[in-house]
Amino acid sequence: MEVEVKLRLPDSAAHQKVSDLLSPFHLKTHLQENIFFDGASSELSSKFAILRLRFYDGDSLCVVSLKAKATLIGGISRVEEDEEPIDPSIARACVSEPLRFGSVINSNRILKRARDEFGCGDKGFVCLGGFRNVRVVYDWEGLKLELDESQYDFGTSYEIECESADPEMVKKKLEEFLTGNGIPYSYSKLSKFAVFRSGKLPE
């Protein structure tokens, strides 16, 4: 179970202010490309699950993830997540032709789970599309903060996230940081995938 605090920033100005304040604590920046898939008969989405390929910094790394049973309440996200690296060249081929997943399904634990637990792939896979994300990672007061700029076809959204086993403590700490610096925020109500699927930025 992945547990994260997710706070939404209203605009690029708030995002820039957070970026400036956290710059001394910068660890790394990733350019991510997220592509989502379902079974041809909606085997995953009908059970509230998601299959995602995430490419990092071009094709330097690709990870396949299976997410299920997601909740997002009061800015705290909980989701069952399982992931495993996959050869980026194979992943790109699967994006172009999702039927190619069939040739690698037995050699990848996540794809096997999608088939064995959800029946996904028996009739093939379909690509749902995706979005790009610029993720900047910081080590701030013992926390690993991730500042996201998510670029959808219909606009850009901004979010700060932190994975923790004690989300209430982290949320309080982040709220104090943002409020103390006059940065507006709200609790994220939708996952990035849900925003992508809705076709519009959250209100």
Tell me the name of the CATH class. Answer: Mainly Beta
- Give me the number of helical elements: 6
How many extended strands? 9
Kindly estimate the percentage of residues that lie in beta strands according to DSSP. 35-45%
* SSE series: EHEEEEHHHEEEHEH
CATH homology superfamily name = Hypothetical Protein Pfu-838710-001
**Distance, first to last CA:** 28 Å
Q: Looking at CATH, which topology would you report?
A: Hypothetical Protein Pfu-838710-001
- Helix % is 25-40%
Number of domains: 1
From the alpha carbons, calculate the radius of gyration and give it in angstroms: 17 Å
Give the oligomeric state.
Answer: single chain
Low-confidence stretches: none
Q: Helix- and strand-based class?
A: alpha+beta
Largest beta sheet: strand ordering: 1-5-4-3-2-6-7-8
What CATH architecture label applies? Answer: Beta Barrel
Instruction: State mean pLDDT (0 to 100 scale).
Output: 95
Main sheet makeup:
8 strands, antiparallel, barrel
